[in-house]
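User: Sequence for Chromobox protein below. C-alpha coordinates please.
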Amino acid sequence: MFCSEDNTWEPEENLDCPELILEYESTLRLPEEPEKIDTNKRKNITEDNRARGFDRGLEPDKIVGATDASGELMFLMMWKGCDEADLVPARQANIRCPNMVINYYQNKSPWYTKKSAKTRVVEEIELSD
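Assistant: C-alpha coordinates for Chromobox protein:
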Protein backbone atom coordinates (compact mmCIF):
# COMPACT_ATOMS: atom_id res chain seq x y z
CA MET A 1 0.00 0.00 0.00
CA PHE A 2 1.24 3.49 -0.75
CA CYS A 3 0.94 6.35 1.71
CA SER A 4 0.57 10.08 1.05
CA GLU A 5 4.36 10.49 1.27
CA ASP A 6 4.58 8.59 -2.04
CA ASN A 7 2.45 11.20 -3.86
CA THR A 8 4.14 13.22 -6.59
CA TRP A 9 3.15 16.24 -8.68
CA GLU A 10 3.35 16.43 -12.45
CA PRO A 11 3.80 19.76 -14.26
CA GLU A 12 0.46 20.93 -15.65
CA GLU A 13 1.85 21.27 -19.17
CA ASN A 14 2.53 17.50 -19.22
CA LEU A 15 -1.12 16.66 -18.58
CA ASP A 16 -3.78 16.12 -21.21
CA CYS A 17 -6.87 16.19 -18.99
CA PRO A 18 -8.19 19.76 -18.65
CA GLU A 19 -11.54 18.55 -17.30
CA LEU A 20 -9.88 16.69 -14.41
CA ILE A 21 -7.67 19.69 -13.63
CA LEU A 22 -10.70 21.99 -13.51
CA GLU A 23 -12.55 19.51 -11.31
CA TYR A 24 -9.59 19.34 -8.93
CA GLU A 25 -9.16 23.11 -8.84
CA SER A 26 -12.88 23.57 -8.15
CA THR A 27 -12.50 21.50 -4.97
CA LEU A 28 -9.88 23.99 -3.79
CA ARG A 29 -12.21 27.00 -4.09
CA LEU A 30 -13.96 28.37 -1.06
CA PRO A 31 -17.77 28.05 -1.16
CA GLU A 32 -18.30 31.82 -1.34
CA GLU A 33 -16.02 32.17 -4.39
CA PRO A 34 -17.83 32.46 -7.73
CA GLU A 35 -17.45 29.53 -10.09
CA LYS A 36 -15.65 31.68 -12.64
CA ILE A 37 -13.30 29.71 -14.89
CA ASP A 38 -10.72 31.57 -16.92
CA THR A 39 -10.62 29.55 -20.14
CA ASN A 40 -7.70 31.62 -21.41
CA LYS A 41 -5.67 30.34 -18.46
CA ARG A 42 -6.18 26.75 -19.61
CA LYS A 43 -3.59 25.67 -22.12
CA ASN A 44 -4.68 22.91 -24.44
CA ILE A 45 -1.84 20.43 -24.76
CA THR A 46 -2.68 19.80 -28.41
CA GLU A 47 -1.94 23.46 -29.15
CA ASP A 48 1.52 23.20 -27.58
CA ASN A 49 3.96 22.83 -30.46
CA ARG A 50 7.04 22.15 -28.33
CA ALA A 51 9.02 19.01 -29.10
CA ARG A 52 8.13 16.10 -26.82
CA GLY A 53 9.76 12.83 -25.91
CA PHE A 54 12.67 11.63 -28.00
CA ASP A 55 12.11 14.55 -30.42
CA ARG A 56 13.71 16.80 -27.80
CA GLY A 57 17.09 15.19 -28.52
CA LEU A 58 17.65 14.36 -24.85
CA GLU A 59 18.99 11.11 -23.46
CA PRO A 60 16.45 9.15 -21.41
CA ASP A 61 17.25 8.82 -17.71
CA LYS A 62 14.49 6.61 -16.33
CA ILE A 63 10.88 5.57 -16.69
CA VAL A 64 8.85 6.76 -13.70
CA GLY A 65 5.38 5.57 -14.67
CA ALA A 66 3.09 4.14 -17.31
CA THR A 67 -0.47 4.77 -18.46
CA ASP A 68 -2.82 3.61 -21.16
CA ALA A 69 -5.44 6.31 -20.48
CA SER A 70 -5.18 7.57 -24.07
CA GLY A 71 -5.77 4.09 -25.49
CA GLU A 72 -2.06 3.59 -26.16
CA LEU A 73 0.54 2.47 -23.63
CA MET A 74 2.69 5.48 -22.72
CA PHE A 75 5.69 5.78 -20.39
CA LEU A 76 6.36 8.86 -18.29
CA MET A 77 10.07 9.40 -18.82
CA MET A 78 12.66 11.60 -17.14
CA TRP A 79 15.59 12.88 -19.17
CA LYS A 80 19.24 13.35 -18.24
CA GLY A 81 19.99 16.97 -17.40
CA CYS A 82 16.29 17.96 -17.46
CA ASP A 83 13.67 18.30 -14.72
CA GLU A 84 10.71 17.99 -17.09
CA ALA A 85 9.14 14.60 -17.83
CA ASP A 86 7.38 13.58 -21.04
CA LEU A 87 4.86 10.93 -21.98
CA VAL A 88 6.45 8.72 -24.61
CA PRO A 89 4.68 6.00 -26.61
CA ALA A 90 5.84 2.59 -25.37
CA ARG A 91 6.42 1.50 -28.97
CA GLN A 92 9.14 4.18 -29.25
CA ALA A 93 10.71 3.42 -25.86
CA ASN A 94 10.75 -0.32 -26.64
CA ILE A 95 12.97 0.42 -29.65
CA ARG A 96 15.08 3.33 -28.39
CA CYS A 97 15.79 2.18 -24.83
CA PRO A 98 14.69 -1.48 -24.47
CA ASN A 99 16.90 -2.17 -21.43
CA MET A 100 15.29 0.75 -19.59
CA VAL A 101 11.83 -0.68 -20.35
CA ILE A 102 12.87 -4.12 -19.12
CA ASN A 103 14.38 -2.59 -15.97
CA TYR A 104 11.18 -0.63 -15.32
CA TYR A 105 9.06 -3.78 -15.43
CA GLN A 106 11.53 -5.81 -13.38
CA ASN A 107 11.51 -3.21 -10.60
CA LYS A 108 7.71 -2.85 -10.44
CA SER A 109 6.06 -4.33 -7.38
CA PRO A 110 3.80 -7.14 -8.48
CA TRP A 111 0.10 -6.78 -7.82
CA TYR A 112 -1.37 -9.73 -6.01
CA THR A 113 -4.96 -10.54 -5.24
CA LYS A 114 -6.15 -12.66 -2.35
CA LYS A 115 -7.01 -16.23 -3.16
CA SER A 116 -10.23 -17.30 -1.51
CA ALA A 117 -8.99 -20.77 -0.67
CA LYS A 118 -6.00 -22.94 -1.35
CA THR A 119 -6.52 -24.98 -4.45
CA ARG A 120 -5.45 -28.55 -4.26
CA VAL A 121 -2.80 -29.22 -6.85
CA VAL A 122 -2.63 -32.98 -6.55
CA GLU A 123 -5.80 -35.04 -6.34
CA GLU A 124 -5.94 -38.46 -4.77
CA ILE A 125 -5.81 -41.20 -7.34
CA GLU A 126 -7.27 -44.61 -6.68
CA LEU A 127 -4.97 -47.33 -7.90
CA SER A 128 -6.39 -50.63 -9.00
CA ASP A 129 -4.51 -53.95 -8.83
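The chain has two domains: 9-50, 59-108.
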